[in-house]
Amino acid sequence: xxxxxxxxxxxxxxxxxxxxxxxxxxxxxxxxxxxENPDAGVILPFEAExxxxxxxQTLRKxxxxxxxxxxxxxxxxxxxxxxxxIYQNSKAxxxxxxxxxxxxxxxxxxxxxxxxxxxxxxKIVIFKPELLNGKISKDPQMLEVAKPLTFARFYLxxxxxxxxxxxxxxxxxxxxxxxxxxYETNLKPGHAAAFSDDCDxxxxxxxxxxxxxxxxxxxxxxxxxxxxxxxxxxxNTCSFNPGVIIANLTEWRNQNITxxxxxxxxxxxxxxxxxxxxxxxxxxxxxxxxxxKRHSTIDPMWHVRHLGNTGAGNRYSPQxxxxxxxxxxxxxxxxxxxxxxxxxxxxxxxxxxxxxxFHPVRRHTGDN
Length: 368
Ligand SMILES: *[C@@H]1O[C@H](CO)[C@@H](O)[C@H](O)[C@H]1NC(C)=O
Ligand SMILES: *[C@@H]1O[C@H](CO)[C@@H](O)[C@H](O)[C@H]1NC(C)=O
Ligand SMILES: *[C@@H]1O[C@H](CO)[C@@H](O)[C@H](O)[C@H]1NC(C)=O
Ligand SMILES: *[C@@H]1O[C@H](CO)[C@@H](O)[C@H](O)[C@H]1NC(C)=O
Hints:
It is found in: Membrane. Keywords: Glycoprotein, Glycosyltransferase, Membrane, Signal-anchor, Transferase, Transmembrane, Transmembrane helix. This protein is an alpha/beta fold. It has helices spanning about 1-35, 50-60, 75-90, 105-115, 140-145, 155-160, 180-185, 200-205, 215-220, 225-230, 250-255, 255-270, 285-290, 310-315, 320-325, 345, and strands at about 45, 65-70, 95-100, 120-125, 165-170, 175, 195, 240-250, 295, 325-330. Helix 12 packs across helix 13.
């Protein structure tokens, strides 16, 4: 009888000791996780607010695939759906670098850590809008068009310093294929990036003519300006869409791509090289200049575009959309908005916001 009591006491003591050790370790772990990297702005390390054992089970091995994507507060559901589609459709060791503004960090972390994305590997990098001083107009109307985060892609090697090759993705995309395949896109020697040309067959199918849907250089750049003329580029050269980029970061650094992009942004401030063109894009033109005839191409099925344009629903058959590896809702009609085509495809990957702040706008609100 006393023996039994002693056993119980020992068991209780062991349990208490065990709990203390576990708690210590967790505290230590969270200390470590909250350390910040002082070099590259504020970099919050990988989230790991779950048990290390669970983490081990779900750890993906193999070569890391670095993916840069931005997270804008007013459309945070976009990056969540995009990440979910990438993660569920691949076994690859994907590591996301999410560039966002300071005010969005907490919301994003709650969303990621309280849903099935909690085991996804990611780091959050805070974009410093001061980076763009003297490079984009401060006119509030322009700022509306020129969302600072859209320039994050210009700084790829700064955000992913450890990688040689990386993928940049717009947030209004869904991936239906295995991202490993996209990552293996071959870049020609001397090329710093691959893009999808706007004249390839899959894309041309979806092009809707009119302002904002240009598919050649003259739609994006003012060829009457001396600085543009001097480059000797052909105005009818097919443009490309920089919503999906495969980059060789070594080449990017060697060729000083970031510095050259900044140079064209600064020159545009003085000489209006592209602010008033039909396409109204101010992120694409510097890329068109710097990568003129110096980029590789992405398989058209890995960047099916224009799902956000009027008429996309008539141009693409459901079979084609199903077969596409990557869908991009560039254009005015976003799949989380009211009037977009194929928003049912996007809905499959969307994960509701645990904070309740973000809701896709649907025709029949109240259904769910
Ligand atoms: C706490 O974490 C540090 C790394 O940040 C590690 O070196 C140390 O061994 C850990 N201590 C314990 C008790 O786990
Ligand atoms: C970022 O936000 C936190 C609160 O969420 C605040 O304490 C901090 O000062 C902000 N940092 C900057 C650079 O604005
Ligand atoms: C990237 O470019 C460097 C320099 O040209 C080259 O040595 C390397 O093989 C390239 N890497 C990839 C993955 O294409
Ligand atoms: C990169 O390009 C910019 C613009 O042309 C130039 O000002 C800068 O000096 C270049 N940097 C290097 C390291 O070559």
